[in-house]
Amino acid sequence: MSALVPSPEQQDVLDLGLTSIRIRAGAGTGKTTTVAMVIANLIERHGVEPEQVLGITFTNKAAAELADKVRQMLEGEADPGRQIEVHTYHGFAAQVLSEFGALAGVDPRVRVITPTFSRQLLSETFHRTAYEHLDITNRQTLDKVRQLNDRLGDHLVDHSALMTEARRHDDEVWNARAEMARTLGAYAEDKRRLRVVDYSDLVMASTRVMGAHPHLAAVVRDRYEVVVLDEYQDTNPAQRVLLTTIFTDGFPVIAVGDEDQTIYEWRGASAENFDLFPSQFPTASGNVANERGLRLNRRSAPEILEVANGVRALANPQADDLVPVPDAGRGQVSTYWARDAIDEADWIARQFESLHDQGEKWSSMAVLFRKNRDFAAVIDAMARRDIPVEVANVGGLLSVPEVAELRAWLTILERPEDSAALTHILFGSGFRLGMADLAPLAHRAAASRHLNEDEEEPTPVTLLEAMEDSSPLEGLRPGARTALARFYTTYEELLKTSQGLSLVEVLRLLLDRTRAWQNMEALPPNPRLTARLNVYRLLDLAEDWSPLQGRPSLGAFLDHLAVMEEEPAEELDSAHLSGEDAVTLVTVHRAKGLEWDNVAIPTVTRGNFPSGARQYPDPMRFPEALPPALRIDAVMADFPSEAGEEERKSYLREHHHRQEWRVAYVAVTRAKHRLFVTGANWYGLPEPTVRPKKPSELFELVTGLEASVSRGHAPAGDRPTLLRSAAESPEPDPHFEMGWAALLRQARDPAYLADLATRHGVLDDYESMLDETRQRLFDLAEPVAGPEPPQDLSSSVTGLVTYAQCPKRYFWTEVDPLPRRRSTAAIRGTEVHRRIRGGPVRRHVGRHVRRSAVGGDHAQRRRAGQAAVAGLVGVAG
User: Fold this and answer.
1) pTM for the complete prediction?
2) pLDDT tens-place string over residues 800-810
């Protein structure tokens, strides 16, 4: 073996030889190294050939690392051309299915689709199905169907079995669950038609084949002498059944894991698997598997381990404490309770800046978040102090200005009615417009109306449609007029050029045509590195996105970004870092398996970390939650199904709380030398929360330990008006000594503006401009330039009924209507509109539709639209 000397704990494992073993490896105890040692020991001293070793882990990255470590340990001892076989858990199931899938009715040429692609396909199935009990107007409903599909696969339950069970019940929850099952049946048909399988299919089908044909399971088993299972605590019940079906009769199986790092139960991991391993994988003599533990932590300083052990005891009171290596250096645990989120983020940035001044690399530092929504303040604070950052989560990535700009462009290319995305672009550095510049455009949009084919009443046009009108727009300053014209020219060019391109090609086109690359290169070194790292990460994400059929679905990609933004835990793999010298910003779930010298954990407030739940997965209330009777593990065996809602909620809350403490244990054990735990009274950018936040149980635990040092605890005080960062020093400006940013803050005070105008001798001009602005913004009695709004002030019977039920609802639907949910008809109309704009027929038809659709009665407008579409067909033909 290599010169690496095993610790007494590791040697105890190696001495067991070729047999079934469960290794309980605490955080930072050298799990991967131990696994590699075990494999190298079996090859060198127990006659096992490299090809007869099967390693299974969760990610491709972990599989590659394990294979490399074994190769390094065997260097010079074995033929380098002979290597161990390492798969991911899904990869192993895919291999079994590729060989024997025909016996399960699976075409061996099927393609495996990742969760993002399966969501895209399921979305297409979902939206062409009729429902009676499911709310299809709620975007989360699709994700609930997807969640149920995953849980069914985790427990080897087919959609038809769920439908059979649903027929035995007659209540609202089971009726909705039956409709979900019907959707999943159609989804299964779509997968068969496209010859694809998702991850659940891999495990279910391979398990079905191995269970029905024991002689084939023996064929697979006879290829190996030993199986090593990494991160076994994160496996689901279906994966456990597959493994126990194949590797039976005392076959040597070695599992490594830590039940206190089981943080993926929400995605199907079963804590029971690791607990029951000794009885489910017995030794050749029929005895339960051997058990060994690793407690010697090689990563963290003693002070950090004191925190880790305190947290771990709350998740698992029976767990053994981690112990530091004898020569472990001193560490530092600091807490800080800030006045608000801005102060908290700035304090973290100052600590990192000080460490960098002392010689620490930026890449030795990380900020670990529990929620994606907390990234923005820290990103801003790091930028103000010229600290380069690498955001390793899609959700947090969307807080980076350069990435947010790209997302806004993608959005208006796919959804031109999204005025929020358009405003984001126009307010950005490329066009530098403000609210007053868009006011005339907004008034034109509000004054114009068009009639969708599924609506009886006209609706306002969008900002983009208002911009397309070539008639003069009054009240625009020349610079704003030029900027709007330049934007629309760019938009039209991008819309035409992007047709048929892949997502990554569209992104590169945007980066080129908007001069984003040049703008990034013009930044100072550290902001330039931050921008490039995070734009590259978005490009990598788009590169991995590919269509199931036809051109890539930009809409599905945008939906995926939205899901990642709302649910950080949806990103399953550990983060892949670039290796550049930048501070890592990542959620705790993606930080699992990684480590840094210096770690900050912000927003450790009550309800945030440990996190509460918006709703607990009660199978008696929510159809997406799998009923305990259909589970094949016993984790929910004592769930009080017959009890009242409060008792069920209490049970699920306790279950959730234990998992949150495991997440906290993972978080604190990422740090080697320094750990910063912070929180604040006030959050919410820019408008703070109604009530101040309080320290969470985690924050109080850390502050109560002897190892921690408090760096400050600010009182809440009065609720602040706004949460905005104050500039460290005034930005250079030829007109304003205090800097333009400080002037904008001062401008919130009307008296200051009047005084400023007086000092510069332009008070009359200022007051005149103010009167004009007030009239444009608030006086809607006088029509703005453009088509006359409809004068029909009558209301429908539906409107009168609505008014009788709720006057406010009547106002927001009839008088000043809010945006409506997209309908199939509206989507078709938008697609026709896009084709008109994007092709050579736009000049002939598009303007005719827009102008004709705002005047006259409904029949005239409908005839105008039909004539326009007929003209489009004629020109295209």
Assistant:
1) 0.77
2) 656 665 676 66
